[in-house]
Specification:
By secondary structure, the protein is of the alpha+beta class. The protein contains 10 helices and 20 strands. The strands form 4 sheets. It has a 6-stranded mixed β-sheet with strand order 6-7-8-3-9-10, with helices on both faces. A 5-stranded antiparallel β-sheet has the order 13-12-11-14-20. The N and C termini lie far apart (58 Å).
C-alpha cells in the first residue's frame, strides 16, 4: 500500500548514487567543450553546475539529458549506462530556460503531455496532473493558457510537467534567468521547496552565484570545460581552492603581495605599495613567497574613530557611498593607496554615521583573509 504525501506521488529511489559521469569529454569539431569530467550525484541531492558563459555546464547537462552524445566517457542514470540511449527513454524531467510551454494548450494539457506520450490511462492522467498542480500551488489553473499566467506561474507549470512523469532525475537549465529580481528570489525558495518535497535528484545549471549558494546541497564550479572545485555552498564561498573560485564567488577586495614573515598562527603579507596585512598561517607559507589575499566585502569593519584593537587596522578616507536599500557599499582608500570596498547592512550603516570624504579606520580580522598561494 502506498504511503501518504509526496512518496505516494513520487516514489523515492533506493540507490545512493543516481547520476554518474565517468571521464566524460564532449567535442564539437576541434573544440573541446568538456574535458574528462567525472562526477556523481547522490540520491535526492540538489547539485548546481555553476560557472561563466562557455564553461561547459550546459553541455554537461545536455549530455545527461541525451541531447548530446559524449565524445568519450560514460553516462549512468540509476546505475544504467545511458550512452546511445535517446532522451525519451532516459526517464528524465527537463525544465528549459524559456520553459518551452505549448502556447495553444491549457495548463492541464501542458502538464499532461508527457503522460499522454507514455500512453497512461486517462483516469490516471487526471489524478496525477491534479496532484502535481496542487504540489506546485496551481490548483484551479488547469484551464488557463500560458499567456494568462505570470512568469513565476509559467515556471511552475514547466516544473510540474517535468515532475508529473515521475522522472529518475530532474534537470534544470537556468530556469529563473528570465524572471525579474524579486520574482527570481521567490522562485528560488519555491523550486527548492518542491524539490525537497518530492526528494528528486536534481542537476541545476546556473551562472548566478546567489542561486547556487541559496539552493544547492553541493556546487560544481566549472571553467573552460573542467571542474575547478566541488563542495557545499559554505565550502566554495569560504574556502576557495584557487583565485578563480575566490574571485568568481561573491565580491572581494584583492591584494597581491609576498609573505614577509611566518608565525605559528598568523603571518604578515606585504604589498609593493607598502601595505602590511596579517593573515592566517597556512601550509606552504614561507618568507618571500607570492600570495593573493581575498577579503570578502562583508567582512571589513568601519570606524569613524580609531578602534582599540590595533591588529589589521588601516587609516584612510571614504571616497564614495553607494546605497542599495537593504545594504550600503563603502568605497575607501587607505594610507598606503590601496582601495577597499565594504558592504554593510542597513542597521550597521545607520549606526556608523560616516560621510563621504571623511576620515575612516578599517579593521580586518586575519580570520577573514582568504590567502591563496
Amino acid at each position: 500500500m502506498e504511503s501518504e504525501g509526496s512518496d505516494a506521488i513520487f516514489p523515492r529511489s533506493t540507490l545512493m548514487v543516481d547520476v554518474e559521469l565517468r571521464e566524460m569529454t564532449k567535442k564539437f569539431g576541434e573544440f573541446t567543450a568538456v574535458k574528462s569530467l567525472s562526477l556523481t550525484v547522490e540520491k535526492g541531492e540538489f547539485l548546481s553546475l555553476l560557472g561563466p558563459s562557455g564553461c561547459g555546464k550546459t553541455t554537461t547537462l545536455r549530455v545527461l539529458a541525451g541531447f548530446e552524445e559524449p565524445s568519450e566517457g560514460l553516462v549512468f542514470i540509476k546505475g544504467k549506462r545511458m550512452n546511445d540511449v535517446p532522451p525519451y527513454m532516459r526517464n528524465i524531467g527537463m525544465v528549459f530556460q524559456n520553459y518551452a510551454l505549448f502556447p495553444h494548450k491549457t495548463v492541464f494539457q501542458n502538464v499532461a503531455y508527457g503522460l499522454k506520450m507514455r500512453q497512461v490511462e486517462k483516469g490516471e492522467i487526471d489524478r496525477r496532473v491534479e496532484e502535481i498542480l496542487d504540489m506546485v500551488r496551481l490548483s484551479g489553473f488547469g484551464n488557463r493558457k500560458p499567456h494568462q499566467l505570470s512568469g513565476g506561474q509559467q515556471q511552475r507549470v514547466a516544473l510540474a510537467r517535468a515532475l508529473v512523469i515521475r522522472p529518475d532525475v530532474l534537470l534544470l537549465d537556468e530556469p529563473l534567468s528570465n524572471l525579474d529580481a524579486k520574482l527570481r528570489e521567490e522562485m528560488r525558495v519555491e523550486t527548492k521547496r518542491i524539490q525537497k518535497n518530492v526528494g528528486i535528484t536534481t542537476v541545476y545549471v546556473t551562472h548566478d552565484q546567489v542561486e547556487a549558494l541559496s539552493m544547492s546541497d553541493r556546487i560544481v564550479i566549472m571553467e573552460q570545460g573542467a571542474i575547478i572545485q566541488i563542495g557545499t555552498p559554505r565550502d566554495v564561498y569560504e574556502s576557495p581552492w584557487n583565485p578563480f573560485v575566490a574571485d568568481f564567488m561573491g565580491q572581494s577586495n584583492q591584494i597581491e603581495g609576498e609573505i614577509a614573515s611566518v608565525g605559528d598562527q598568523e603571518s604578515e603579507v606585504r604589498t609593493q605599495s607598502g601595505l602590511r596585512i596579517l593573515v592566517k598561517t597556512l601550509d606552504g607559507f614561507e618568507k618571500g613567497r607570492g600570495v593573493k589575499v581575498f577579503v570578502r566585502v562583508e567582512t571589513p569593519e568601519i570606524f569613524s574613530e580609531p578602534p582599540p584593537d590595533s591588529k589589521n587596522v588601516f587609516n584612510g578616507r571614504l571616497e564614495s557611498i553607494s546605497y542599495h536599500g537593504s545594504s550600503t557599499l563603502y568605497y575607501m582608500r587607505i594610507e598606503e593607496g590601496t582601495r577597499f570596498v565594504a558592504e554593510k547592512s542597513r542597521q550597521e550603516a545607520d549606526r556608523m554615521r560616516v560621510e563621504k570624504d571623511s576620515p575612516i579606520w578599517l579593521r580586518i580580522s586575519p580570520e577573514y583573509c582568504i590567502s591563496l598561494l
